[in-house]
Description:
Helix content is 58%, strand content 16%. The chain is α+β, with helices and mostly antiparallel strands. The chain starts with a helix and ends with a strand.
Amino acid sequence: MGKKTNENKRMSSIARRINMSFWLKELGNVILIDIVIAFLIVSAFAVWGRKQLPQGVGGMRYYVEKNEDGGAYEYIIEGSDEKKYRYDVKILWDIIELPGIILLGMETIVLFAALFRTADVRRRLKPLNDLAVTAEKLSKEPMDHNKIDDLEKAISHLSADDDEQVIHTGDKDLQSIEIALNNLLRNMKENEKRQMRFVSDASHELRTPIAVIQGYVNMLDRWGKEDEQVLEESIEALKNESQHMKELVEQLLFLVRGDSGRQHLNMEKTDLNRMVSEVWEESMMIDESHRYEFRGTENEACVLGDVAMIKQSVRIFVQNAAKYSEPGTAIILGVKEEPGYVSYMIEDEGTGMNPGDLAHIFDRFYRSDEARNNETGGSGLGLSIAKWIVDAHGGTIQVISRADIGSRFVVRFPKIA
């Protein structure tokens, strides 16, 4: 009982201090408002007195003094005609007396009522105080060892091979801990699955070029030493496969650095319009089998980002368009300004994609069946890298594609001044 009384006294003391702090702030606000009102009234009276001067006479000096009889105060304006124009200050008082009394009365009532809001503050503080008291009580209460044993048993019975198994003791006091542990386990299992799938796909992609290299090395060992045609064919194939392996390893390292947070971005203001036009010029020089068009903006379209990274994403989308477009078809590069955003667009007249493929095009190592059977199928990492770059810059990617019609990729970045 005594502890509860002390707790009530402590909360009442806190409520009084909070209430007094707010009351002092309200008092300061009332005084400030009164000062502003008084200044405005005096300024208005001064302007009124000036307007009462005869036409052509300007005011030279302004002051207040008692009248010649030593009685009431007068507002004096010394005019440019060297005369004194007097105005009884009582005129001002007659105007503001009643409104002033009403205003001061209302302010007094408000301030007086504010002194007695301690009970209201205490009532509003009660839920927070009860929460603090309960938390303190729980922190001092010893944990039931049986509950700890139940939790340990539930954890020890988990199977690493069962993805659906969760921790469950049936104890309500442990329910929040169970939810936290189950969420942690779920995230760990999902990360493990992604890692295993990534390693498996990487191994599969590396297995093919390694097998090709081994095959040509064996052929060189058997016949290539004497057959010049076999020698040239083998050297060319070894160069191509080694280059493919180099590009694949570089892409894998890029994604690994990105996943681990070690991929550094050199953020700076850059003109997206100029950057995409540079990729357009490069593409025309490198690839003469397609028609490249550029549709830019008249003004700069600036974004904040890593120039090299964003340019790499543009190249990936352009190379992807060229890879799946017939020779002679058009590939359009464009830049557009939108409210709050700047976007670049890559559009082709290629094979397009089915709705089922669109949901997976940014998955690592994913390629449609048509692409896997194509000589230019690639590794399936390009679009994954492009998406990582766009995500790292706070951008978004919109994809519109129709089979046998073409695809359009629109990448939006936040706009800066």
